[in-house]
């Protein structure tokens, strides 16, 4: 028993202590291949001529050409393996180094990347693995702006960006813009002639897809993950191949849309507004600039009523370059009771009669910005009445008014007779008594209206010749009658509804045809 007790008591004293990891570092174990590779890499310090002679001796020792070819192939294969392994290890080491020296944690890095433009974000993605991982976060693609001044973006780029954003997508801007966005009060047209670019700018290069957006560029919005469900802003500029069916499909995938801007698309106003009414009833800002000034007479009164009833949240409305009639405009202004910003610049047929008794009514009294620049049929007497109402205290919230016209205002009797220096419009009195209103009333000293008419007629004739070249089966008389009918009605009061057939849209058969043509 004593012996057993001695063994039991002495056992703990003979047990060895577990060493600390720092005191006994783990020694790596190398395999035979590791040792061979280490010896092989040691040859990199040898002169290259020695390696060349050794390789030549190995080749000469082989009896046949087939064996020599196999040896060369194995050497090339081994060299590629070492090259790829070296690149991977270098990237790993660089990523580890960047993660140590980079001052921001991943969440703040993602926040910074989400503020970058699309091109800068792509540069950051290609920098290193750590940046690539952060830049692939969907929140970095919440606001996609792919607008350019020349054709540089195609459908594949748009699709990639939208898929990376997923359900985080909130803003999407596509197309070609001629320059910086026009400032408040400016009527600088954003419509751009896309066909003016050279063929080399739009054709496909090195087997890649053409740098031109087609009608299917918005189809990813309705993909499996429904990235368009939470989209708030959609701006489209001068996409010459876009059509109304494609827009309708995009709008159906964006029920939460609040801000819609369409410039220079060959789409019809009535069909576009109908698609908005059916799918985007939360819309708050609607900006639509026609690609052909004064030729779209498709808007009808029922469409105006539906827009007022189905989209009552509209605060900003801009319909530029369309053929609008006063009673339709009045429906919009009196029905949209939250309206604060209105822009009907370069619109045809507007005489200004819609402004009568508008400032003291429920609709229109909240207007802060009213832009009627270069409205060809805007009458001097209607502007004078509106100025008088301003002096009487109407439109108390109005802060910006633009009635400038490069061809002067139309007279009461004949709109061909232009007024350049009106005596009945109390401009100076308004400036003095309503200093809170920024008033722009720039008129030329003398007009060149008929020169403008000749320019428009030549533009129409050029538009007529294009479809006749595209299709030999369509008669010239149809295009001539449709074009002339939209202008002949301008000589009257401009308050008659035109037929829907007066607006002609030429559609292409499919996107495949576009690529075959390139």
TrEMBL record:
One annotated Gene Ontology cellular component of this protein: SCF ubiquitin ligase complex
Residue segments, region Disordered: 1-24, 479-502
Record-linked InterPro entries: F-box-like_dom_sf (IPR036047), F-box_dom (IPR001810), LRR_dom_sf (IPR032675)
One Gene Ontology term from the biological process aspect of the record: SCF-dependent proteasomal ubiquitin-dependent protein catabolic process
Record-linked Pfam families: F-box-like
Chain intervals with Polar residues compositional bias: 1-13
Record-annotated F-box domain positions: 102-146
Low complexity compositional bias, start-end: 479-493
Protein name as annotated: F-box protein SKIP17-like isoform X1
Organism: Cucurbita maxima (Pumpkin)
Gene that encodes it: LOC111488820
């Amino acid at each position: 028993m004593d012996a057993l007790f001695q063994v039991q008591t002495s056992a703990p004293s003979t047990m060895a202590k577990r060493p600390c990891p720092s005191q006994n570092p783990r020694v790596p174990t190398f395999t035979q291949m590791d040792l061979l590779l280490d010896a092989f890499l040691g040859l990199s310090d040898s002169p290259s001529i020695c390696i060349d002679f050794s390789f030549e001796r190995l080749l000469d020792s082989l009896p046949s050409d087939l064996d020599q070819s196999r040896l060369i192939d194995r050497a090339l294969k081994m060299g590629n393996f070492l090259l790829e392994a070296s690149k991977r290890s270098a990237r790993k080491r660089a990523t580890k180094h960047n993660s140590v020296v980079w001052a921001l944690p991943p969440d703040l890095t993602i926040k910074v990347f989400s503020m970058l433009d699309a091109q800068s974000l792509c540069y950051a993605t290609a920098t290193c693995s750590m940046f690539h991982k952060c830049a692939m976060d969907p929140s970095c693609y919440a606001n996609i702006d792919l607008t350019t001044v020349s054709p540089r973006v195609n459908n594949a780029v748009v699709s990639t960006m939208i898929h990376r954003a997923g359900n985080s997508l909130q803003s999407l801007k596509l197309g070609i813009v001629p320059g910086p966005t026009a400032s408040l009060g400016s009527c600088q047209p954003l419509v751009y002639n896309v066909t003016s670019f050279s063929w080399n700018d739009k054709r496909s290069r090195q087997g890649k897809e053409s740098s031109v957006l087609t009608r299917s560029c918005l189809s990813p919005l309705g993909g499996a993950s429904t990235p368009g469900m939470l989209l708030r802003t959609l701006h489209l500029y001068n996409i010459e191949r876009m059509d109304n069916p494609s827009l309708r499909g995009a709008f159906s995938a964006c029920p939460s849309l609040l801000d819609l801007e369409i410039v220079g698309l060959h789409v019809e106003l009535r069909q576009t507004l109908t698609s908005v009414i059916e799918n985007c009833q939360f819309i708050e800002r609607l900006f639509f600039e026609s690609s052909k000034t004064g030729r779209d007479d498709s808007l009808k009164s029922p469409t105006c009523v539906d827009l007022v009833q189905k989209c009552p949240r509209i605060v900003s409305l801009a319909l530029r370059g369309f053929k609008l009639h006063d009673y339709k405009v009045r429906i919009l202004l009196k029905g949209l009771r939250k309206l604060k910003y209105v822009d009907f610049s370069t619109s045809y047929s507007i005489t200004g009669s819609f402004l009568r008794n508008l400032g003291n009514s429920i609709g229109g009294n909240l207007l802060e910005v009213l832009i009627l620049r270069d409205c060809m049929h805007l009458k001097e007497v209607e502007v004078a009445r509106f100025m008088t109402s301003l002096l009487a205290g109407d439109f108390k919230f109005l802060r910006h008014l633009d009635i400038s016209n490069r061809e002067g205002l139309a007279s009461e009797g004949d709109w061909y007779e232009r007024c350049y220096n009106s005596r009945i419009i109390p401009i100076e009195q308004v400036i003095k008594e309503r200093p809170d209103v920024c008033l722009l009333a720039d008129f030329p000293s003398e007009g060149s209206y008929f020169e403008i008419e000749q320019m428009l007629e030549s533009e129409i004739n050029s538009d007529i010749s294009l479809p006749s070249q595209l299709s030999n089966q369509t008669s010239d008389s149809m295009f001539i009658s449709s074009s002339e009918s939209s202008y002949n009605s301008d000589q009257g009061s401009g308050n008659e509804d035109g037929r829907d057939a007066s607006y002609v849209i030429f559609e292409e058969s499919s996107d495949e045809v576009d690529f075959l043509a390139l």
